[in-house]
Amino acid sequence: MLKDFFTKPKKKKYATIPSEAAKHDVPEGIMSKCPNCRKILYSKELQKNLKVCIHCGYHHQMNAYERVESFIDGGTFKELDRNLQSKNPLNFPDYLEKIKKDQQKTNMTEAVLTGSGKVNNHEVIITIMDSTFRMGSMGSVVGEKITRAIEEADKRKVPFIIFTASGGARMQEAILSLMQMAKTSAALKRFSDNGGLTIVVMTHPTTGGVSASFASLGDYNFAEPGALIGFAGRRIIEQTVREELPEDFQTAEFLLKHGQLDAVINRLELKDRITTVLEIHEQVGELPW
Asked: Which of 2, 125, 220, 277 lies at a 20 to 30 A Cα distance from 234?
């Protein structure tokens, strides 16, 4: 059953819009252009289709609140630890000013949103990293919020789901940022030892210290199509090994082919597929609650 779940291809369900619309001049914001196939889309239709291109299936970037709206049952999300905000322990120039700008731009206090909610009536703790806030970089507050979310899932005895999106460790916090790799990984180990279920969904991009720590430690490691996933940059690796890497290197599809992911799942199917995982674990009694 699980084998079919991971390997059986799903039929994609894309909406359609009139192709002639692209030929007319329209007010700004009404239309969007897909960066992959370069076709014109109605912005509202793109949003309705969970920001997946109706022509080529390209997954456009989603912010944290869009993720909540698309994945968590309406009216069930309750944010955790919104009061936590970054300081400037190393007195890095203009660091706090940049943080404030991103707070105003995203309506988030940091690069990760944590909270409780329900997925098709299954209670979960959810964590969503947002690459529009400091490129989703992991600083002390990001690590602390993720750790607290894991501990909250352990306390409530519910599954922990995390959507990862990050450029890696936050250089403005240096070693304090790198310490979050160990802290979050240790929290997941304690959660696992207590019988907790962790589901990771890697989105574009998931790189650096995030990919090398909690992003790779799920009981299930999923990814969206085309997501960039890796530690070091492609050019650095090629210069180190002195070999040309495959064209699809560090993509979700490459990792799946080499056994580093359990499945690559289209965003339109993600909620139902994860619901299936939750139901399977409940039915076979693998969840302690």
From this structure: 220
